[in-house]
Structure formats: structure tokens, C-alpha cells
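Here is an idea for our session: we take a single protein and study its fold together. Once you have written the record down, we can walk along the chain together.
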Amino acid sequence: MKKILAGTFATLMMGSGMVALTSAPATAGPYTGTVETSTSIDAPAKVRKGAKARICVTVTAVDSDTRPKGRITVRAMHGTKGLQSLKTKDYRGSTTCLRTHRLKKIGKYTVRVHFDRKAGSIWKDSNQRVDMKVTRRR
């Protein structure tokens, strides 16, 4: 009886020792869509009626030194009149600037930028928005 208990105890100790010595599985590099991105917009606070607004966009990878690549979409939406300008451009890792269509409605606009990653890349999509005001011409 003592030998059976001693054998069982020894088996349990050996099994728990093996579990304690196993390591975590190895991981490869980042998988598709796992690197966070951050989008920043440089847009004017005020624009005159009938003028085009120059909007610059920068997309950076959070906690990474890589340069995201993909496509950016810039939408200028009037508060009550809806979509006024829609522009799309390829993004290759540096600050990209584009101009809206002529903004003809006076009032508050919301400029929304959406970064859409390149297919199969490691970055995640991101977006940002900022307010802008169109004022009367003098």
C-alpha cells in the first residue's frame, strides 16, 4: 500500500514538474490588421464662402516605426445640407494634402478622414474628424 501511494505521489510530482517547465508558444511577426494607426488632420478653422479648403492628413502607426500605406478618404459634410465634398487619394506613408471642392454653403462643416489600409497589410483602419466653419465673403 505504501508503495502504491509513493508511486502515485511521484507520478503526480513528475507531471506537475513537466507542466511548470513548458514555455509559451512562439509568435511570429504582426498578423494582418494588428498594428494600431492614428490619423491626424490639419485643416483651417475658417474658410471663406466659395473657396477650397486645404486639408493635410498624416497617418502614423502606434507603438511602431512602420509607415502605414493605404487609401485616405476626406469628406466635408455641412451640418444640415449633407455631403459637400468627397476626395480619395492613395496614402504612402508621409503627410498628404488635398483640396476640397468649392464650399458654397455658409455654416459649420465636419471634415472626416478615413484611413483604409492596403489589403493584406499589418495596419488597422482608423479615422478622425474635425470641425470647420465657412464664413461670408467680405
